[in-house]
Amino acid sequence: MIRTPVKVTVTVALVLALAAGCAPVPQRPDREEMYIKASALTKLSAAVESTVRYKNPPPELNDRELLTLATRHDPALLDNFNDYTVRVLRQARHSVVLVCDAPGTRALLEDAGCSGPMDRHPWMEKPEPCEFTIDTAEVCEIK
């Protein structure tokens, strides 16, 4: 059996602990900025919802084209999201808008256009991938 000196074991443990401490920790987005974006998103998602529900856009439109069509009356609705990835989901004549970080890896805000209040603030939680979680069949259900 090979015996490892205590000094070597302690040194290895110390190096591993320091390396773990230097690992990048994802920064939480600025709270005030996210609340401003959330307010802007409710307006944008309502415009997208109106377009999807009443203007019957062609299904082959990509996210950017659909956002441009939905904001044609007020292009400034997109100004708050220039440095973000914005995705749109269409389900049964309803829509969900998802705002992610610039590279499109982390979800920050998600809102269904059919509901009044902001639906989700994933930026407040542990980092989530830039994927839709809202089901319009549940959120947009008429009661």
Task: Write up what this structure looks like.
It is a single chain. The longest helix is centred in the first third of the chain and has 24 residues, at 31-54. 36% of the residues lie in helices and 14% in strands. It is an alpha+beta fold and 143 residues long. The chain has a three-stranded antiparallel beta sheet.
What brief labels describe this structure?
alpha+beta; 143 residues
Brief synopsis:
The chain has 143 residues and is an alpha+beta fold.
Strand content: 5-15%
- Low-pLDDT sequence parts: 14-18
The count of strands amounts to: 3
Q: Percent helix among the residues?
A: 25-40%
What count of helical segments does DSSP give?
4
- General form: globular
How would you write the strand order of the largest sheet? 1-2-3
Evaluate the radius of gyration.
22 Å
Class computed from helices, strands and strand pairing: alpha+beta
Largest sheet: 3 strands, antiparallel
In whole angstroms, how far apart are the ends?
72 Å
What string gives the helices and strands in order?
HHHEEEH
Mean residue pLDDT: 86
